[in-house]
Amino acid sequence: MERDHLLANIQPRRLKCMNIVIDGRRTSLRMEMDIWEALQDIGDRERLTTNEICTFISHHIGEWRRQRDVEEGQDSSGDSDTGQKGKGGETITLTAAIRVFIMNYFRRLAQGVFQAHEGESHIHFGLEGNLP
Fold this sequence. Notes:
This protein is an alpha+beta fold. It contains 4 helices and 2 strands; from the N terminus they run αββααα. α3 (50-71) packs across α4 (94-110).
């Protein structure tokens, strides 16, 4: 594969707003078409809907934050109710978490951490890694 091909479809401001449902609540996310397509590809492989993947990611944002704080030697026990504040008080957004999830999912696929779908879900592998 040529290097130019990997960047061939990059177009500035190629964003699309779509509605998703997380825990029965509808929300809108504005992300690049490539991100939406990657979520669809993962969903096809894992036999999950985009809503199910986004719900899964949303539920784990606080867990990621606590894991990162432990690795950095910080105490996040006082923020357990919010779960979405990152170090320095910045918010870990759902769109940022989705992008990191997608990157980690495909990295693990490329590294051979999991193979072609064999009837079991590999979705938990995509959650490992650091958020912004």
